[in-house]
Amino acid sequence: MATTAVRGSLRILKRMPQLTYHCYSQCPRLPSTGSEGAFQIITPFGAAQQRHFRTTYRSNGQILPFKLSDIGEGIREVIVKEWYVKEGDKVSQFDSICEVQSDKASVTITSRYDGVIRKLYYGVEDTALVGTPLVDIETDRTQEGSPEEDVVETPAVSHQHTHQEIKGHKTQATPAVRRLAIENNIKLSEVVGTGKDGRILKEDILNFLAKQTGAILPYEGDQQVPTPAVRTTASVTSKPDKAPVTTYPTAAAPRPVFTGKDRTEPLKGIQKAMVKIMTAALKIPPFGYCDEVDLTQLVKLRMQLKGLAESRGVKLSYMPFFIKAASLGLLHFPMLNASVDEGCQNITYKASHNIGLAMDTPQGLIVPNVKSVQTLSVYDIAVELNRLQNLGASGQLGTADLTGGTFTLSNIGSIGGTYAKPVILPPEVAIGALGKMQVLPRFDAQGDIAKAHIMSVSWSADHRVVDGATMCRFSNLWRSYLENPASMVLDLK
Amino acid sequence: MITRTLCHMCLGTRSHTRWLTLRFHSTLTATFADGKAGTIIKSVSTNIFENLALEDWIHDNIDLQKRSILYLWRNTPTVVIGRHQNPWQECNLKLMTTMGMPLARRRSGGGTVFHDLGNINMTFFTSKKNYDRHRNLSVVTNALKTLRPGLDVQSTERFDILLNGQYKISGTAAKLGRSSAYHHCTLLCSADRSVLSSVLKSTYQGIKSNATPSVPSSVKNLFDEDPTLDSETIMTALASQYNMEFGFDSPIYAVDPGEEECWPGIQNMAQELQTWEWVYGRTPKFSVCTNFDVHGLSSSANITLNLDIKNGIIENCVMDMSTEWLPKNVSEEFGSFLKGCKFCPNEMAMLVAAFLRVTPLGEYSSRMYSLCENVIARV
Question: Where is the BPL/LPL catalytic domain positioned along the sequence (chain B) (predicted)?
């Protein structure tokens, strides 16, 4: 038994000369790892031998209790408020482990070691005593110094949980640098560290990448990672050279962040709502009908009225006109302002024209509606729209505004596009999508080419209760009101 | 006191690194390279998120082993809750929304406070070894007593400062990291007390939570005691006393927490502090149990609503009705529809609208609508 142990140790000693030196030079206080059951040899060489034998197996790493260090001011106990890790999680040195609170002071406890969390000694809201173990961490190589020592001073970037297993020799890098490496699929063991003690710095990663791709990387990607202050100078990188990057015309779109791996997450509240609505909408057999509208006259009218509306404190866009014209059309075609029940047995002709406006907000797609448009003037509608837009932008729309719609218009053209295939929102039976307004050449009444402001419109309707001819006639009426706004005056109620 | 405007500050404070950092960042002025042990800075911003982000930035990035910093800042009206508090329990969120008042959650512990320009905030940054809250508070009380010798201000065991033995004029909170710490406290100079008392009163009923509760106290402004005590005078006195107490001789530097060039990464930190996930989502698990009457066209019922909320998201929603006012399967379906929804009136309204669209309710539509309105009103 003893001979095989010695032979095994000698093999290991040959393979890891560094480790031998490490272990021998320390005064090791062997932490007890009860499960090992190995007996302790007192002589230094024997102790080192013992160490080596243990460390050949990765799973049989040392389990070190990480104690709650002194917080100061004579505080003896704290309340554990939040755990950032759970049993089985891998942690790196300087990662945040938990948050404790004592007497109006909130303390972030960071890990002293790299390893795997094996045991949490307290639950949330438990009282923890200073000096007692908080967690057990299983490490897969020997740690310097005694477990009771306080954590080293190099600052951690809080709230980042970067776990990267480092196989083989110990690689020093802060969590921010490790994350950058993970994001770019770089093994830290392949990067040459230029910091203190061979520590890998952010610049080392960037240089490594530059060599690989042959180009200087754009700086914007780094902006996500706050630069921690470190002792060595070269790592204080607040502004590396900005690379000449071609800018694409993505005005409002967020920059995609390439993380290199798939990400699955459950659908949250609002997304779930969208799924439910669209699944229900699938039951409706839609037909589409598209047309184009010449808004040249409307453009002139709006120019005249814009100033007047602003003097009353209201922004006047084209939407109030579109909405009012739709309502005037619905007076002649009440079929389109109707609702069918679940089994399509009964149809209800709604008295009130509550015209919904599809709105794109940070929370997702919502459809607030303007109530009783048949009783409102164009100016009233503009006021309502302003109110709904402000509430939508600040996330304050209530149930009253979001429910009760009978007909919907979607102004997708404000973002872009011409023709669309809008989905009917149950329990309605029709919807219209307005494309963008373009200045195009058209023949006028004299047969000459003239500038015209053209907008396309795409309608969808429930073919179970609406037929093509109805939709066509409604669209024509709506179009005629907009192409000749003066005619709206005759029919305004 | 000389107030110098700063554009750039450099990181790293060790003497052998200072020289190299200057070479690397040739545009940075060497304010922190002056080798001084104490620095006083004052924020030019009154945006709570920018100011809190600067606190975090200094805590994370500046080496405080041999240097201490005093940071003075004020904000436009806002409510700030402690790290582990429950905003629904602590303040009147509906009133704040109508007033356009933001809510912020700081990273230190402690209770809820109201900030406006009549309230001074000061943060004492030190190494963990030099962390001493009572000493910091003595700086405040001595500064005030030097300004007005007869003033009765005293710090307490709980790290408050009382005026005339009964009115709280200052509250404290602290944050400790691996090797450095900060202790910040407020000082009521001329805050709007009527707004303070109305926003700090929660209107929510039936909340059961383990979150750190605030201890309400009667407050008074220093301005009410002595009208010559305004914020600027007090801040200058605080800076002098700080220098005197710790043996420093720093002037007050004006800093802008919005400058990304000086504080790389600070914009992201300020953004993070404004996300719903941080402000509301960090609330410890809590439950709401409330009871109300709903009225239909010709009938009414009494409803008991039970909600379990974790990370600000509804985990469980159960409605008990006194009579079969709505079919049981409908109310159960509504309860499960709300699971996974943020405990936020806007998102709940959106989900309710979707529910009403897709669920065939027939004669129960108006009752369901009434129930939904009542539920959202209680958020």
Answer: 64-250
